[in-house]
Design a protein that fits this description.
Strand content: under 5%
Signal peptide: 1-20
Number of domains: 2
Structural class: mainly alpha
Keywords: Signal
Largest sheet: none
Order of helices and strands: HHHHHHHHHHHH
Helix content: 40-55%
Shape: globular
Distance between the termini: 29 Å
Number of strands: 0
Radius of gyration: 20 Å
Length: 225
Amino acid sequence: MFPLVVLLLLGSSLLPWTQAKLDLGATIARIDPSTTSCASSGECRTAAQAGALLSTSFSRHGVRCRQEAACLTALVLLETDHLKYQHNVYPGRPGQGTANMQMCRFNAEYAASDPVLRKCFPDVLPVGSDPNEDQCRRVLKCILDHEDKSFDTPAWFWDKKCPDKDARAKLSNGGIEGCAAYLKSCVGVDGNDQSRVALNRKAYDAFEVTNAKTCVPLDQDECQD
């Protein structure tokens, strides 16, 4: 008959070993250590701040795979110049901004879909028309005045503005190449641009999905044995 202490130790060895679920702020800091602090105030956000905002947004819009989160996070890091800016600094297109540097027409559409933003941007645009320069500036200011909205747009765009089912499937169920497909088909940028590829790889490595073949749930424990 085994002593009680031996039985307890044996039983504990049979239980799955787990670590805490993924901390998005800490993951962003692993991708880019420079984001742990901000050199200046204004639009800059730290990894911890951005991580909390993105986590809420991912839940809201149904981002359920680590691959999706990795790609969107890398997109945010590149477009904001490592979380420093939330508007287009160069060449300075009026109204282009938010965490994924959306063009003005998408910002206007996003604002129209949100009850909070409709209070600061009540303009109703005719279907198919583009906002004018004044509207572009006002709608961006409206969004940036609500930082949870600015960091909500990457997942909103993925959720509402990417009709390519094949690209979405590749992003959800594949490895790093799925991000390139999403960027090209849905965002309209070169997914094979070297600066994007390098940042995407860091993100996918940090999320541990570089060579994934199926969706890795975003809420799955980081390490299981």
